[in-house]
Write a structure and sequence with these properties.
Blueprint: H1 2-5, H2 14-25, H3 39-43, E1 50-51, E2 54-55, H4 61-85, H5 91-120, H6 125-151, H7 161-189
Antiparallel strand pairs: 1-2
């Protein structure tokens, strides 16, 4: 099943290989693999801690973000299963749920992860460039994803076979982008998130 195989996926570009090498060769020790937090653990998460208006390291952040990834992939699979089963009427509601989950994930990533990393990697120019490229790319992916969700939020498009076909092609492409991005974030970007 593709969900099981995505996390063993190799880097997808020379830039990713370079980023992986920068991470390997940096003075920052590699973070041990962490398990995904349960729903109960996620419910206990506290807001981002700040000292002097600066976001602080949060040991629960990476498990939370990985849990978000797993949830997004399950939501994606749910929509794909509805399309396969021909139950198209349920797709818009599932897309709204997926949009809200992605919005929450990107907001958490932007506030807690990117803000902290921008400051903590300021002295490591190579690692700072890796961070910047991922942030810039994520901003673009987010815009495209939200445009997609907004385009298909209603049910008018369900009436036409051509519209459903266009949706399926765009949805398949969104899935490829999400899987690729999640894989690279978890293998390259998240290991850079360390206490300073």
């Amino acid at each position: 099943m593709w969900l099981k195989s995505i996390f063993n996926k190799p880097a997808t570009s020379n830039q990713d290989e370079g980023a992986r090498e920068v991470v390997k060769n940096s003075a920052i020790p590699q973070q041990p693999v962490r398990r995904v937090a349960t729903i109960e653990e996620l419910a206990e998460l506290q807001p981002a801690k700040s000292v002097n208006n600066q976001i602080q390291y949060d040991e629960k952040l990476i498990p939370q973000l990985k849990g978000d990834h797993a949830a997004l992939l399950l939501m994606y699979s749910s929509v794909a299963n509805k399309m396969s089963a021909g139950t198209w009427d349920g797709v818009p509601a599932s897309l709204r749920e997926m949009r809200m989950a992605m919005y929450g994930h990107l907001l958490t990533e932007g506030v807690k992860l990117y803000s902290y990393m921008r400051r903590s990697l300021a002295e490591e120019q190579n690692l700072l460039e890796v961070y910047r490229s991922y942030k810039k790319e994520m901003d673009g992916i987010g815009r495209v994803a939200f445009d997609f969700f907004d385009k298909y939020q209603g049910k008018d498009w369900l009436a036409s076979a051509d519209s459903r076909s266009s949706f399926k092609a765009e949805f398949d492409n969104l899935g490829k982008v999400l899987v690729d991005r999640i894989t690279r974030e978890e293998n390259i970007l998240y290991p850079l998130y360390m206490p300073s």
